[in-house]
Amino acid sequence: MHGRACFATVVCLLASVAAAEQLADRATIPLWDGKAPGALGDTPEDTPVVQVFIPQQPSTASIVVCPGGGYGGLANHEGPKVGEWLSSKGVTAFVLRYRLGPKYHHPVELGDAQRAIRLVRANASEWKLDPAKIGILGFSAGGHLTSSAATHFDAGSAGSDDSIERVSCRPDFQILIYPVITMGSGGHEGSKRNLLGTNPDPKLVELLSNEKQVTKDTPPAFIVHTVEDKAVPVSNSDNYAAALKAAGVEYEYVRPEKGQHGFGMRDDWTGPCIEWMKKMKFLN
Asked: Considering only CA atoms, which of 137, 150, 132 is closest in space to residue 244?
């Protein structure tokens, strides 16, 4: 798996989740007031947050960014740099620091991603964002988290005392960069072990093999995966794209020959990704 560098976070402001304040560029926002559900401590690794990257000329689109790192680390080149790129294109980015294995296992990681989407949607009006243009983007294991959020979602809990929990966690679109998709054979064993532990229940492996969870309600996708990827086989994206096609879900698939796993930002996908967002009317 590619580098498991520490996820760099610039803490400029801790905004209240319960009563959202005006967003500030590079602000770090905790996903929950107080301890997150299931937290095993009070350290940064126990405290999921999003770091905000605000465009100088914002559109109403937003994206939650999930760095890769095998569910055991967060690759720095797949975090803040991506937030900077998106904000330069008019997209408000929320770079997610989610909890990791082996300390945390499913469903904690998915719960963090779902909460990030709900947080943005619940505050969309105040933050001048469109609640129907909230995407999620992920690299490698972060791509698995992204595809999990895109195939495992709910409409919210109407009776919750927490206003954020009352809104949907379904992303409106998904962007997958050399993603881990399956938890079965042909996936990535390190990611599987960190997410599900050793000897996971076969039913859980099936549930989190997201090529098997696509339905007509899965949001449209932009996918990037190189043929020569040796860490996460391109079959992960091939099978996911096939499932999207079978379900009638719109997608675009960039499949270059060359490029080792973990290459991060690259012109052969960043430009087409922005054009796809415009074509799909997520970015104006």
From this structure: 150
Residue 94 burial class via C-beta count within 10 angstroms: exposed 0-12, middle 13-18, buried 19 and up: buried
Say which CATH number the domain at 172 has.
3.40.50.1820
Q: What is the pLDDT of residue 8?
A: 40
Contact 187, 200 (CB under 8 A): no
Tell me 95's DSSP state: E
Structure tokens at 154: 């709910």
Task: Provide, rounded to the nearest whole percent, the portion of the chain with pLDDT above 90.
Answer: 92
The answer to whether residue 166 sits within a structural domain is yes
d(CA 26, CA 10): 6
The pLDDT, as a whole number, for residue 21 is 60
**Cα–Cα separations (whole angstroms), residue 17 to 31, 88, 166:** 7, 26, 14
The reported pLDDT for the residue numbered 35 is 96
Dihedral in degrees, nearest 10, Cα atoms 141, 144, 149, 150: 140
Burial group, residue 253, by CB count within 10 angstroms (0-12, 13-18, 19+): middle
Output the pLDDT for position 16: 37
Q: Are strands 251-254 and 221-224 parallel, antiparallel or unpaired?
A: parallel
Integer angstrom CA distances of residue 254 from 31, 35, 129, 178, 238: 32, 40, 28, 10, 11
What distance, in Å, lies between the first and last C-alpha atoms of the chain?
35
Whole domain around residue 173: which residue ranges? 28-279
Give the span between the Cα atoms of 35 and 37, in whole angstroms: 6
Q: What single-letter amino acid sits at 214? A: V
Cα 130 from Cα 107, distance rounded (Å): 28
Task: For residue 12, tell me if it sits in a domain.
Answer: no
Per-residue pLDDT tens for 59-83? Answer: 999 999 999 999 999 999 999 999 9
